[in-house]
């Protein structure tokens, strides 16, 4: 056993390459990898412990707690990595060339990764979005369930998980439906035929909105006569809600069904596109039926 251990020690201490004045051996590589994995594992346990203890007592929002804990973990990993390199016998001054190469790689091949990582830090500090927000970026609409260092996870109403790079939240326009508070106003366009009692239509639309349990009484629903359209009067029902922010399609559909039934009950016509055809007299005259029958060719 002693002979085996000595042979193993000699094998691990064989230099692999030279970094400055330091000879990097297989034992140095194993030592670094083992301690680095242990560092990542322990910082993860420490982060979860802080979340259970400090996070449970603080009144800060969940997104703020996760942002602070993520920054703490990244800082501990950075400090631990420097300590591991020192204890492994690697002189950090010899890494200047390597740091320069990494900088060039970040500037070219890793540009997108670095951009997304920095954008993630901006999101954690400025908090334009947070976990639980209803957002819309591009054609993606859903709830934020996770904000990572490189990407943000959004779940749509179809239960589809979409991974969005953090850089999109910094460089593109983002609609956050619940940034300030959870109250959102939806606008439902409604058209009625000319000749309809406009005040009756207004009263019925407000009644439909008030009868819906998801529409708020404060602020109250309102109706606006927007324009005199080509085919009818163009109204707009404006209703506030704080329970259907994440399911606006369901609320709009329920209101449209109720509007249709109410209008049918009160015999209010919903117009369809109409066009008037004007016939003008001119030099051309259409032949009468007798003339067209007399000129019809005979068939054998």
Describe the protein's topology:
Blueprint: H1 2-12, E1 15-19, E2 22-25, H2 26-57, H3 62-87, H4 96-107, H5 111-126, E3 134-137, E4 140-147, E5 151-155, E6 161-165, H6 167-171, E7 174-176, E8 184-192, H7 198-211, E9 222-228, E10 233-241, H8 248-265, H9 289-294
Antiparallel strand pairs: 1-2, 3-4, 3-7, 4-5, 5-6, 8-10, 9-10
Compute the gyration radius: what is it?
35 Å
Mean pLDDT: 80
The main sheet comes to:
5 strands, antiparallel
Percent range of helical residues: 40-55%
Shape: elongated
Structural class: alpha+beta
| Widest sheet, order of strands | 6-5-4-3-7
Query: Helix count?
Result: 9
**Strand proportion:** 15-25%
Count of separate structural domains: 3
Number of strands: 10
Uncertain stretches of 5 or more adjacent residues: none
Distance between the termini: 120 Å
Secondary-structure element pattern, one letter each: HEEHHHHEEEEHEEHEEHH
């Amino acid at each position: 056993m002693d002979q085996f251990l000595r042979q193993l020690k000699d094998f691990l201490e064989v230099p692999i390459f030279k970094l400055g004045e330091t000879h990097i051996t297989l034992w140095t590589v194993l030592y670094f990898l083992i301690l680095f994995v242990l560092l990542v594992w322990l910082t993860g346990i420490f982060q979860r412990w802080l979340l259970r203890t400090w996070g449970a007592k603080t009144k800060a929002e969940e997104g703020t707690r996760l942002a602070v804990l993520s920054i703490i973990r990244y800082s501990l990993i950075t400090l631990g990595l420097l300590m591991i390199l020192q204890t492994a016998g690697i002189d950090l001054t010899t890494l200047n060339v390597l740091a320069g190469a990494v900088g060039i790689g970040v500037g070219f091949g890793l540009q997108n990764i670095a951009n997304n990582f920095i954008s993630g830090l901006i999101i954690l500090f400025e908090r334009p979005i947070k976990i639980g927000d209803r957002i819309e970026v591009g054609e993606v609409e859903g709830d934020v369930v996770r904000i990572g260092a490189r990407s943000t996870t959004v779940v749509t109403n179809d239960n589809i998980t979409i991974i969005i790079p953090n850089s999109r939240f910094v460089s593109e326009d983002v609609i956050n439906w619940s940034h300030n508070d959870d109250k959102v106003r939806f606008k439902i366009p409604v058209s009625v035929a000319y000749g309809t009692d406009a005040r009756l239509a207004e009263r019925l639309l407000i009644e439909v909105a008030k009868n819906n349990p998801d529409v708020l009484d404060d602020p109250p629903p309102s109706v606006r006569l927007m324009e005199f359209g080509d085919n009818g009067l163009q109204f707009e029902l404006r209703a506030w809600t704080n329970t259907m922010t994440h399911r606006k399609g369901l609320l709009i559909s329920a209101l449209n069904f109720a509007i249709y039934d109410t209008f049918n009950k009160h015999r209010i016509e919903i117009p369809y596109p109409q066009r008037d055809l004007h016939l003008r007299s001119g030099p051309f005259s259409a032949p009468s039926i007798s003339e067209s029958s007399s000129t019809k060719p005979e068939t054998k």
